[in-house]
TrEMBL record:
GO terms for cellular component: fungal-type cell wall. Residues 28-257 form the Asl1-like glycosyl hydrolase catalytic domain. This is Asl1-like glycosyl hydrolase catalytic domain-containing protein. SUPFAM superfamilies: (Trans)glycosidases (SSF51445). It comes from the Eukaryota. InterPro entries: ASL1, Asl1_glyco_hydro_catalytic, GH. PANTHER family: ALKALI-SENSITIVE LINKAGE PROTEIN 1, ASL1-LIKE GLYCOSYL HYDROLASE CATALYTIC DOMAIN-CONTAINING PROTEIN. GO terms for biological process: fungal-type cell wall polysaccharide metabolic process.
Amino acid sequence: MPPALSKEVTPNGRKAGAAGVLSYPYFKDHVGWWYDKSPNPPGNDGSTGMEGPLAIPMLYGSGSSDAQDAQWLEDWKFRTGPTPPFALGMHRPDRNTSYAITPQTAAQLWKYHLAELGKKGTSLGTPAVIASSDDWWLNEFRHMKLKWDWAFTAIHIYEPDLDAVKHHIDRYFFWYVKVIWVTEFGCRHDPARSVEFIGSPCEDQAYINRLIRDMVDYFEAETRVAAYAYPDLNENCALCAAIDENKHALTESGQTYLDAISKYG
């Protein structure tokens, strides 16, 4: 594996990022990029002379789930400005909710809205699936006629220990042989491992803090990981959220992430 494998698709040469508009103001001095799931996030769009973390556009969904989804798809169709250096595919299309998108529908969206950017020089990221042991969705998607291949594989990793995180990186790189953007990560309780952990480690703030630090250190050292970002909120772990929406401030987990990435820039 080339030692500089991840550098060509690392925004601003800095792996750490922010996944959300709420936490971005706190993290902005120590991240190379951020996104808010919209097609036009404010800030540095990659234009000559622009400074600060790159604002990465996302083609969020099919436009059929709710008003926000529909508006974002409409906004994407009428995007203006320079060709972005990077763009992200759909957000969790594999989830079992109204936001689910079939690989076939996603491939059509990719061809019409992302492939053209790829031809102009944009590095494209896959639809961001939730890392699992049987990733049927992305496997089907890659066999569609996409017109333009992706430059990096985007995944969300929610696991209760670092070994499981490493296992996902190993598998997704083995399957697709593309560098990885971990566009969300955090702690998630796995009921199947309750005996191993004696309950849920994601209810222990000290454990969560240690896991965040370990994950950041691992992502920074791992050449197959080109970028990573911690999310504003975590629906699986209340203590893991980066932002306290009531206090409008960083949580202990958010502060831990900030401290961890500050070591690297």
